[in-house]
Amino acid sequence: MSKLTLVTGGAGFIGCNYAARLLERGEKVVIYDNLSRHGAVKNLEWLHQRFGRDSFQLIQGDVREADRIRMAAENADAIVHLAAQVAVTTSVTNPREDFEINALGTFNVLEAARASGRNPVILYASTNKVYGGMEELRVLEDDRRYHYADLPLGVSETQPLDFHSPYGCSKGAGDQYCRDYYRIYGIPTVVFRQSCIYGERQFGIEDQGWVAWFVIAALTNRQITIYGDGKQVRDILYIEDLLDAYDAAFEHVDTAAGQIFNIGGGPQNVMSIWIDFGPLLEKLLGKSIIVKRGDWRPGDQRIYVSDIRKAEQALGWTPRTPVETGIRRLFEWAKTNQFLF
Q1: What strands, in cross-sheet order, belong to the sheet with 189-194?
Q2: What is the CATH number of domain 4-340?
Q3: What is the mean pLDDT of the chain?
Q4: Do 267 and 152 contact (CB within 8 A), yes or no?
Q5: Which terminus of the chain is more exposed, N or C, with fewer CB under 10 A?
Q6: Pick from 324, 179, 141, 167: which is nearest to 261 by CA?
Q7: Domain spans, the chain
Q8: pLDDT at residue 1 in the model
Q9: What is the DSSP string of 136-173?
């Protein structure tokens, strides 16, 4: 009998891709989504076209609705909790909504799992923003990028938490609640502090999903604004590699339960957001791109790179998709599907 996986935010970028992977394996899927995010309905249509309208159950609901999420989780063997408010800028302008979706919503999911009595494995998508600005780390600068002076392999899970911004606070609260529900109630939770994820079916916007946003904007002749000097460094991770990590967490749940992992491209998949990325995008586009310049945004890290050794050792996982390969795949998908944007 195949397991049933509840995917909150299952019509989003990561959620629909993981739902597709589960459906390909013949597993049962319940998608729980309020369909508020741009692209969500299009992602559902893609799943329906690919697998059939009866291939999965859709529950249109919000994680702030405790009774509704409890009903959705009552038969779940596994829960992938992706539903979230995802933009730092939005959290600053509307911190109450950010808190209710991310902190209270995650609490509702955990309580729904506890009420089910099934002890489902819960995988929670956290964020590297729980580490804040990390101003205490020494950062070096050259003509193309920023570098950590003392962390050649990136930031590990031992980095102190510093919930900078309402978004950092709300996601960090969910992060810690998940960890504690394993310690107190024995619910097998796994927390992934994810770095920049990119790939097909990502409807990126300026405030979130910058890799996809730059690609979509370049293809549709929209203005690209570079905030700061463009030398900010991120480790970026292709969607299929992230989904491999999800699978690995479920496969190794005996050792992963109660653990927190930094999940990103790691030091082998780093890129400055425009000094490196711009020329690659121009090469794919076949023409130069004129960008607008803006001031640094509050809390913008000069550099963030994940130390992924813990996930490598505990889950047997490592990224397999080089940056240029993944970006080319995203570009070709966006080019073929410009009508979606």
Answers
A1: 57-60, 28-33, 4-8, 78-81, 121-127, 189-194, 259-263
A2: 3.40.50.720
A3: 96
A4: yes
A5: N
A6: 179
A7: 4-340
A8: 64
A9: TS-EEE-SS-EEESS-TT-B-TTSPP---SHHHHHHHH
Q: Which two tokens stand for residue 83?
A: 């539903």
* Residues 33, 83 contacting (CB under 8 angstroms): yes
Which residues does residue 294 pair with via DSSP β-bridges, in sequence order?
A: 227
Residues in a beta bridge with 259? 190
pLDDT at 38: 87
% of the chain with per-residue pLDDT over 70:
99
The residues near 22 (Cβ < 8 Å, ≥ 6 apart) are 5, 7, 29
Residues near 122 by Cβ (< 8 Å), separated by ≥ 6? Answer: 78, 79, 81, 109, 110, 113, 178, 181, 187, 188, 189, 190
Look up residue 12 and give its DSSP letter.
S
The low-confidence residues of the chain, meaning pLDDT below 70, are 1, 299
Of 131, 167, 182, 304, the catalytic one is 167
* CA distance linking residue 327 with residue 336, whole number of Å: 14
**Spatial separation of the C-alpha atoms in residues 168 and 127, rounded to whole Å:** 8
Specify the pLDDT at position 193: 98
CA 201/CA 222 separation, integer angstroms: 19
260 close to 175: Cβ distance less than 8 angstroms = yes
- 239-251 and 13-24 helices cross at what angle (nearest 10)? 60
List all residues 6 or more positions away from 153 whose beta carbon is below 8 Å from its beta carbon: 266, 267, 307, 309
H and E: helices and strands count for the chain:
13, 15
Residue with tokens 């702030």: 64
Question: What is the Cα–Cα distance from 174 to 69, expressed in whole angstroms?
Answer: 16
Give the pTM.
0.96
Task: Calculate Rg over the CA atoms of the chain.
Answer: 19
167 is catalytic: yes
pLDDT tens digit sequence for 37-95: 889 999 999 999 999 999 999 999 999 999 999 999 999 999 999 999 988 889 999 99
